[in-house]
TrEMBL record:
The keyword Aminoacyl-tRNA synthetase does not apply. Residues 504-694 form the Metallo-beta-lactamase domain. One of its GO terms (cellular component) is plasma membrane. It comes from freshwater metagenome. The chain crosses the membrane at residues 217-244, 250-270, 318-337, 349-374, 380-399, 406-427, 439-456, 463-481. The lineage of its organism: unclassified sequences, metagenomes, ecological metagenomes. Keywords: Cell membrane, Membrane, Transmembrane, Transmembrane helix. The keyword DNA repair does not apply. This is Unannotated protein. It is found in: Cell membrane.
Length: 739
């Protein structure tokens, strides 16, 4: 048997060389000689080897030339300034009661970040903004891949106007389509339709965005090549019904794609989606595998040549993975479905969704450390609905350019499948195991195993079916058994309380529904920032510093400098010391409000409700023990009650009106407290956690405290032996403890 047909063609080798050069050039130029060797071997001829090496070097040189540091604004960083900006996208709500959007100022791209509800301005709006212009923090380095080098903390927005010229005309096209979608009576369905057609999910609620992502349906509202390919597949299906020839089909696909770009805003992500989607369409249309590979490689090389930074952009990686999987797998999957009697109109979108899910799963696991177990069933259920919703939405957007009233019937009809897609996403996304932690190699290996076993079905059907079932079980169960937690926020409807292992000190993290509240920050050098990253936190709705001691607020300034914080509840009660002063200075520099803590205050962030029980208003230590004036919090999350006592012991707690609780943070690192048995009998906690450092010199926790806890029958965990202790659950689902 000849293997000549399996050997890469010269054009294919050159495209691979260009792609490798574009990826390695700006990041790992030392690996270029290593990459040149296998390319020369594959080329097989001296001329081919020279050509591949030259293209490799040219791609690397071009990428390095185009990948310099992002252009900085003319204004100096670290100062409050006023800028005239042009929005690149609709501002969207972010966690922590904030909003964000990319904008340009005199050729420089920056990230806007503000508090409160997103301003009602769309892409192309020109306005003046005043705020602190600063360098990106450790959790904002991702903006470099988007070509931005600064963040403007917006405090004031002036009235906006529209830009003119060709860009303004494209804005008008998009605005007319958005106005048509806004006429849909079901606001949530209209927001989803806007996301599916225009790739703009700014109007979707944070909860719906989170649920769709957990269900593996987040790609539906992203400007991705998979969405363009889905639209092209619909056109191809209609052409097939009408009996159109291959040339006519391709021409119509390219025409529809060309119409989609201005409709969706013509931004960088849209242009990339159009290129990727066009490549997927060509790959689906091509009958020869080599033509499919050429189309995919050409699209990847073209998008990276235009913007080399895209190689590290998760959006590009997911888009390329989805498009590649569609081009290589959608055809065989569609044929397999139609051979089993599935109608082509149903087989096409199902094959696209399944192929895209297979392609993006290992990439998503590599980027985010998670994989959605709900993705396959949710996508299979949503796939027949996505096609009519996208097509009707596209027609609504086109007719809106003539008259908005003509678009309303199409938008109203499109809202019906959108409502069903949203219901599917909400249901699957709310399942406790909808999204789990998993490494990329686990996902890729599981997919490879399933595919290999599926191929075995042809020769030994009974054995193949049994092994495939076992493999599917491994895909669904084994990653769950290896779940280490903390890499992603908790599932919707689930509370997570993490007692962080930061040494001799307190740091308690409360999470629910994309919101996060941190109570205390432990001592300096406690690796708190790294633990917050592992817990999936990139912002805090609020930070509570319970009292003025270094083992509770020692790393507070580091936290404020590392990530956005909505509010600081300051429990220093007038006591001045070094760490508290640093905390206040960091908060002031970031524009974060400090509020003195006192009984009666309530912090609310999504499902988190934290009520301050102590100290009374107007009381200060006046040289006394700061522990006796530490902030005591009763938190309620998803029906659970958590009592966080800081260092306040029973002489303080006995004065408070305390209800039964589910979780108790034991006072003062487990120090001796004669009133602890009475407190335990009164509040009857199910779990008690001691935050204490290994080998501390204070003798914490004391034998008397451990004895009282043991006699009460409460489950006890301690950070010096168990490491970080994570408790998850709700009033209806019960509690699960790790650590």
């Amino acid at each position: 048997m000849s293997l000549r047909g399996a050997r890469p063609r010269p054009a294919e080798i050159l495209l691979i060389a260009a792609l490798v050069g574009l990826v390695l050039g700006p990041r790992e130029p030392r690996l270029l000689p290593v990459a040149a060797l296998p390319l020369a071997i594959i080329a097989a001829t001296p001329a081919g080897a020279v050509g591949a090496t030259a293209v490799l070097a040219s791609g690397a040189g071009w990428a390095r030339l185009r990948s310099g540091p992002p252009h900085l604004p003319e204004q100096a960083l670290g100062h409050v300034t006023t800028l005239r900006l042009t929005l690149e996208e609709t501002p969207r709500a972010a966690a922590g009661s904030r909003w964000r959007a990319f904008a340009t100022v005199r050729g420089a791209r920056i990230l806007l970040s503000g508090r409160g509800s997103p301003p009602r301005r769309g892409a192309g709006a020109v306005f003046q903004a005043r705020g602190l212009l600063r360098a990106p923090g450790p959790f904002e380095r991702w903006i470099d891949a988007r070509g931005a080098a600064a963040v403007l903390e917006v405090s004031v927005l002036a009235s906006a106007e529209r830009r003119g010229g060709a860009a303004g005309s494209l804005d008008a096209v998009r605005n007319r389509a958005q106005a048509a979608f806004a006429r849909v009576r079901d606001r949530d369905a209209g927001s989803l339709l806007r996301g599916m057609v225009l790739g703009d999910d700014a109007l979707l609620s944070l909860r719906d965005r989170e649920l769709l992502r957990h269900a593996g349906l987040g790609h539906l509202v992203a400007a991705s090549g998979a969405n363009v390919a889905l639209l092209a597949a619909l056109v191809l299906g209609l052409c097939a019904v009408a009996g159109a020839g291959r040339r006519t089909r391709l021409a119509l696909v390219l025409a529809v794609t060309a119409l989609y770009v201005p409709l969706a805003g013509s931004g960088p992500s849209i242009r990339r989606a159009a290129i990727m989607g066009g490549a997927a369409s060509l790959a689906l249309w091509a009958s020869r595998p080599v033509a499919r590979r050429h189309a995919l490689l050409l699209a990847a090389a073209a998008t990276l040549a235009i913007e080399p930074r895209s190689a590290v952009d998760p959006g590009w990686q997911l888009s390329f993975a989805a498009v590649s999987a569609i081009g290589l797998l959608a055809g065989p999957l569609r044929s397999a479905l139609t051979a089993r009697g599935v109608a082509r109109g149903v087989a096409e979108p199902v094959a696209l969704s399944v192929a895209a899910g297979i392609g993006t799963a290992p990439v998503a696991a590599g980027i985010f450390g998670t994989v959605s177990l709900a993705s396959l069933p949710a996508n299979l259920m949503a796939a027949p609905l996505v096609a009519p919703a996208t097509w009707l939405g596209m027609l609504a957007g086109l007719f809106a350019q003539i008259d908005e009233r003509l678009a309303v019937p199409f938008a109203t009809l499109a809202a019906l499948p959108c409502r069903a897609v949203l219901a599917i996403g909400r249901w699957w996304g709310a399942r406790p195991m909808a999204q789990i932690d998993a490494a990329w190699w686990m996902v890729l290996g599981a997919i490879a195993l399933v595919v290999a076993l599926g191929l075995a079905l042809r020769r030994r059907p009974r054995l193949g079916r049994m092994l495939t079932a076992l493999a599917l079980g491994a895909v669904l169960i084994w990653p769950a058994l290896r779940r280490t937690g903390g890499a992603t926020p908790p599932a919707p409807g689930i509370a997570r309380i993490t007692f962080l292992d930061i040494g001799q000190g307190d740091a308690t993290l409360l999470q629910a529904g994309g919101h996060a509240l941190l109570v205390d920050a432990g001592p300096p050098g406690g690796r708190l920032s790294q633990q917050l990253v592992r817990a999936g936190v990139d912002h805090l709705d609020a930070f509570v510093g319970t009292h003025a001691q270094a083992d509770h607020i020692g790393a507070a300034a580091d936290v404020l400098e590392a990530m956005p914080v909505g509010l600081v509840l300051d429990g220093r009660s007038g006591v001045r010391e070094q760490r508290g002063t640093a905390m206040a200075a960091a908060a002031h520099a970031r524009g974060v409000r400090l509020v003195p803590g006192q009984a009666g205050q309530v912090l609310e962030a999504g499902a988190i409700r934290a009520r301050v029980l102590w100290p009374p208003p107007g009381v200060t230590p006046h040289g006394g023990d700061p522990n006796d004036y530490a902030i005591v919090i009763l938190a309620e999350i998803e029906g659970l009650r958590i009592l966080l006592t800081a260092d306040a012991e029973s002489d303080v707690l006995s004065r408070l009106d305390l209800p039964p609780v589910d979780i108790l943070k034991v006072s003062h690192h487990g120090s001796a407290d004669p009133g602890l048995p009475a407190l335990l009998a009164r509040i009857t906690p199910r779990i008690a956690v001691i935050e204490v450092g290994r080998g501390n010199t204070y003798g914490h926790p004391t034998p008397s405290t451990l004895r009282a806890l043991e006699q009460s029958g409460v489950m006890v965990r301690r950070t010096d032996r168990d490491g970080a202790v994570r408790v998850e659950g709700s009033a209806s689902s019960g509690l699960r403890v790790a650590g």
